[in-house]
Design brief:
- Helix content is 40%, strand content 15%.
- By secondary structure, it is α/β, with parallel strands linked by helices.
- It has one domain (12-202): Ribonuclease H-like superfamily/Ribonuclease H (Nucleotidyltransferase, domain 5, 2-Layer Sandwich).
- Strands 3-2-1-4-5 form a five-stranded mixed sheet, sandwiched between helices.
- The two termini are 21 Å apart.
- This is Ribonuclease HII.
- Keywords: Cytoplasm, Endonuclease, Hydrolase, Manganese, Metal-binding, Nuclease.
- It holds the Pfam family RNase_HII.
- Its EC number is 3.1.26.4.
Length: 203
């Protein structure tokens, strides 16, 4: 069972993103504030769950959360400001959209750009430790998957319906053979070793 809260004094929002290591499409982020009594035996890091379970959990999260929001930053902005800054921007946008102002922020990972004057803690592998971060990971992942599925038919050769823009062998080969689509991040080199590391982090 994951932990409910990092601290108990302030209204706490969990944040996470999805799509950091992709070759194509936007990066998505979510912010979630859960009720104090929230528990779920299935909810954990989205990467550990089947797609079916993720979508079932999305319904539960959206029904039971005190507040939630999902935001994205597109591939063009990623190319302009780099993926790390784009990930922070997407999380800030999601936090801006919450109808309740969080007093404390839990972020998955080891880095975050301070949001207003709200204190935060970075939790490495936090999506497998805290409900709110896990919930944010579910929302970010499923909404991003929905987007990639919605555009997959425009460029079927890249197999986005299955890889969702991640650098699988088939996707990389399609880029090498056919070049970039209008949805590709042009600053991401297809053969960059960094991509395999990012991809492994998100599987």
């Amino acid at each position: 069972m994951l932990l409910s809260f990092y601290q108990e004094d302030f209204v706490e929002a969990g944040c996470d993103e999805a799509g950091r290591g992709c070759l194509a499409g936007p990066v998505y982020a979510a912010a979630v504030i859960l009720p104090r009594e929230f528990h779920n035996e299935v909810l954990t890091d989205s990467k550990q769950l089947s797609a079916e379970d993720r979508y079932k959990l999305r319904e539960i999260i959206e029904k039971e959360a005190v507040a939630f929001a999902v935001a994205s930053v597109d591939h063009e902005e990623i190319d302009r400001i780099n993926i790390l800054n784009a990930s922070f921007l997407a999380m800030h946008k999601a936090l801006d959209m919450l109808n309740i102002r969080p007093q404390y922020i839990l972020v998955d990972g080891n880095r975050f750009k301070k949001y207003a004057e709200v204190p935060h803690s970075c939790i490495v592998k936090g999506d497998g430790k805290y409900f709110s971060i896990a919930a944010a990971s579910i929302l970010a992942k499923t909404y991003r998957d929905d987007f990639m599925q919605s555009v997959a038919h425009l460029h079927p050769e890249y197999d986005w319906i299955n890889n969702k823009g991640y650098p699988t062998i088939k996707h990389r080969q399609a880029v090498l053979d056919l070049g970039f689509t209008p949805f590709h991040r042009k600053t991401f080199r297809v053969t960059d070793p960094q991509l395999s590391i990012l991809f492994e982090d998100e599987l």
